[in-house]
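> tool_call: predict_assembly(chains=two)
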Amino acid sequence: MLLPLLPAATLLLAPACAVFSDEAWNVDYHFALLGAPKEETSFFHRPNPSSKASLIYTLSEEHALGAVNPRDGSLVWRQLLASGGDSHNTSFLRAGEGQDVVISGIGSEVAAWSAADGRLVWNVHTDGPLEDVEILELSDGKETVGAKDAVALSGGEHPMVQRIDGASGAVKWQYSIDGSDAPYQLSASSTEVFAILIHKTILGYVKLRVVALDPVTGLKTDEYMLSSENELATADNIISVGANSASPIIAWTDAAHTTLKVNVVGTKSISSFSIEKHDENAIERVKLHAPYHINSLAHFLVHYETATSHWAEVYHIDLKNSKVEKAYSLPRVAGRGAFSTSTADANVYFTRVTRDELSTVSSASHGLLGRWSLSSFGVAGGVGEVIEPVHAVSEVSVKGDTVSAIRTTVLLSTGDWVLLRDGKAIWTRPEMLASTVAVTFAMPADMVTLAQQLEVEAHGNPVAAYIHRVQRHITDLQKLPSFLVLMPKKIVQGFLGTSADDAAGSDIFGFRQIIACATRSGRLVALDAGHPDRTLWNRDVTDLKPGQSWRPSLSSTKDGVIQVSSVAGTGVDYNATDGQQLAGDLPVIPDEPDLSTSRAVRYTMRGNSLEATYDWSPSWTFTPTHGERILNLVPRPVDDPVASIGKVLGDRRVLYKYLDSNIALLATAHDASSKANFYVLNTISGAILYSNTHPNIDLTAPIPTIMSENWFAYSFTSEASPDTTKGHHLVIGELFESLLPDHRGAMGASSNYSVLHTPASDPFTLTQTYQLPEPISRLAVTRTRQGITSRQLLAVLPASNALVGIPYGVVDPRRPVGRDATKDEQAEGLMRYAPVLELDPKWYLNHQREVVGIKEVVTAPALIESTSLVFAYGLDVFGTRLSPSFSFDVLGRDFNKFQMLATVAALAVATFVVTPLVMRKQVDQRWRFL
Amino acid sequence: MKAYTVISILLTFLCSLSAALETEHTVDILAWPLSAPKGATLAKITYNSTAATVKSYTQPKIPSDDDIVRIGYYHPSGSWSGIATAASNFAPEKSKILLLHLNSDGELYHVGFRASDYGSSSAASHTKDGLSVELVKVRPGPTPHLNKPVVVNADGTVPSKEPEKTFLQKYWYFIAGFLVLQVVMSSGKGE
């Protein structure tokens, strides 16, 4: 009896579950990124010495320290390290063999982190900036079984070497380096610690000074100068100073890369090798790869690179007489390559990654232990771009004479970080997105073409439009076969799928826009907002020198086109769908200035003042008073549609908004009196429409500002004062034409006026302040196609690594203060003012994920009115789509077409079955005795 | 004691008076047509933190092909601050208002300009040849409207509420009215 009820019960349960599983993990996406890993600070390491599982550790160029699971590429933990703001930009990450901590060094801080969960174990600050950090691997048997100690070399005014206790972080000894030589690196053998210093000779050359220290007492045992003669012009020519090996070495070349000199640290003899030229191209780079373990064989590999090819040579060190000998060489291969060193017991293996091959050799002989061809790295590149490896880290396990398993993580020239297992790409991490500097949304071109064609038909004469339409349909016929093939699938999906599934490829809602990200390394990366896990294309658009940075601005001037413009260059257009450069579409500046542009008022920030030009001659100027500096200027967005010119009150009267497309919010700071001033400017005439000043502001805290529609918002952190409370404040100001309902102020309803001829009377501004539980570092606002949907204020909360969407109604400055809302106000959605704005957990767009390091949030309208696309970047990349007024024009995911059709069918059947019964019953009723 | 108070009040008054006189500033407002190489003085204005007067006004000479005029002034540091307005606004029949934006220290930081066809009655005393001047002080920024704190007694206890009125105290007039009504009714019946 109960059995038939069971399916019915499950049917009832299914919708109940749908209430809880909302769209949280479907419409939004998040990449927890680290930034491009550095070669010298990336390695495989076992967080738990007793288990064999290892993690990949890296300290990236964005100063993010983290552990990545090699199985699926997920982030295990991460810590953002402050670089201390110095331009030095050197960072170190070391892990001792069999240790459960990793030790990082950045700026002037040495810190130990638990390898398994990333918790801080200890940290030590040095006096000067760190030059090197090493882990002391002593083999004299005297060391304790526990944590291994670290040695740190710091520069600055008093350079010194410090030995730091691995368990507590206490400094065991320190040795101050005398003389004016600049500290360069540390090197540790099993018996001694060497500090390598750079000594500048009178002739301008550099020489290497080596100070040998006793690791137990920290006393100097020896000191000597290496006779590098005149070939070492700068410290850049030092290739490597090996550390933690049986015999650490120093290697350098001359400036022209013709000879390689190698010195085993601790000896004074220098072995010299001439570098053979393999092709006509000059050698650009020489790298040295040596094992990092004290018990490993004393072998190393030298990697030569020219513009077109690379090769390598393997050298052996005879430990008895400290002689260096060349053992074998690896052949020249076109393109760039990456070598990595891995050890197993005493054996050393070198793994080579080239464009199309992965191979492993033992350091002892040149026979290949394993070789895999790489068909692709599984990442998107530019059109015709050859993706090349930049650097690699490997973990090799060898059984007998063959490699039984190999895992290699490779940083590619596209910026992706890829793990190859036995030659197959297992996962990729788009680490290039961590250095995103500019972003724009663009509609895909194929969506646009149809819209354009329809436009042509709408505006042409009827006959031409008809011919055009027939032609369009004929071309569409070519797609018929593929359409027919897809038909059954589409029908099944139409019945069984939910309405929000857009797997069919069509994008009628405009959710699948292309997000173009410009990275600091000069690449342009395109993501699909609908399928963000897939990079559409990724191409190099600039020719940046190392260390050079660019500040591009991206825009989508017309649909399907992305325009990149640098500070001093004209814009270059790219096709949004495939990244092709549209050479023919380069903007050409017309000889005759266009009337529409030349009449425009343009303004720019020059020095510490705003200067505007009208007709190319200077117009208004805003110069802050002495001691006041401009923090930022946000104009109202160019594309900011507003559906209603007024706010309808509860009694059906209207408050008219002050809508002017030429207004901007300017924030300035007066450091001496710690005041912040905010001005609303008219950007045509330069007049001030509204201004206010806040005293006792913490000017070191971020002061984000935003302007949209007829309102502005800003946030700051104020110190305690008699006037206000200490804390984080969010101020909202709304501009109205008049505060009297149904009154349009002095300008009336005149549709045409110029602020220059008849300056409109100032707007009436309502402001309100809310106290926030935490600071806001960035403000943004949602945008929809026609501006009918209410807006949400997006705020980045750096303290909780979150992004919140605050509905505008909650911070409305018209909320009644000190009394409950009247009926009319309630009808409008206003509620009683509360001084503290509690951030509702439902507003957190990131849900329980930690979105770290967000610097900027961009929004774009979707094709349907209810929805706005949001994309946040900085370190992490986070995107979602928002419906501030709920999804009123699209069915939700939980709408089940099949269920609805089944219900209709069941009702039809039931009607059909029941009709005769009812008929008979009615007839029977008639025949009953009345 | 009393004399002391009087003297102190007098002194304070004098001090404030002198302070008010001291903060009197003079500024030259320039009108600068776009094509002109440099600006010409439009008005000399003296102002303090509460009032401003036009000392002199010169009708600007604007070339006929210029339709935009900049109005501004030079900061003490020598940098220019100004706005743009239409040249037609300087027509003699228009009434013109010059706005001086003052910051919280009473310092001038920006100017504004307004012209209207219909005569404006405001600040007529400051008018000179159709130019009047208004001061716009920067507003203090909004602060949160905090809830009223609970005031406690000296010993830290919350003050007890006033004792509520009894039923009789609250509604005695109803009872009185009822009684009066009864009396009136009964007297009426008696007749």
